[in-house]
Write a structure and sequence with these properties.
alpha/beta, six-stranded mixed beta sheet, 6 strands
Length: 169
């Protein structure tokens, strides 16, 4: 099942050449660690891992990263007890929204953590279009995620509106 076009993968690969792109996961480490601990997780999949800043910010689990735009990180991931998908969904091409949400939750054995920005971003990709191509209000994401499992929502911590939702399996 397709979840990204080849052209969009290329555009994101170029964006990742910027050392500042894909570096925010660690700011959600406290939430991720709490889910790891409560789930008794042995492994964590960072889905859309970017620069993998979450790797050194959590403990007690085997960390694995996956990012379809990064060579070496783009192989089909294996399931994990907890899957973190942070600052990814607003970048997903809209036609693949449901497929990516289902993939993330399907890879999670115990819980999937979503952090989703609900506002346009300033960054443009090489095609001149916004990097945030899939921007929707919080209720849109809540409804999509509620169809996939039991939700636990946490307050946003970013300057822009965001949802931080755990889908428990």
């Amino acid at each position: 099942m397709a979840m990204i076009t080849d052209e969009y993968r290329r555009l994101n690969r170029l964006a990742h050449e910027d050392p500042a792109y894909g570096t925010t996961a660690h700011i959600h480490a406290e939430l991720v660690q709490s889910v790891i601990d409560r789930a008794g997780a042995a492994d964590l999949l960072d889905y859309g891992c970017g620069k993998q800043t979450l790797r050194g910010a959590v403990r007690g689990v085997e960390y694995r990263g996956y990012d379809p735009a990064l060579p070496g990180m783009d192989a089909r991931p294996e399931a994990a007890d907890v899957v973190y998908c942070g600052d990814v969904m607003e970048h997903v091409e809209e036609q693949f929204t449901d497929a990516v949400l289902a993939d993330v939750v399907g890879l999670a054995r115990k819980a999937a953590i979503f952090v989703i920005c609900c506002a346009p971003g300033a960054r443009k990709l090489a095609d001149g279009k916004p990097a945030h191509r899939n921007v929707h209000p919080p209720d849109y994401w809540r409804a999509k995620l509620a169809a996939l499992g039991a939700l636990e929502e946490h307050p946003g911590i970013a300057k822009k509106p965001e949802v931080r939702i755990i889908v428990w399996k």
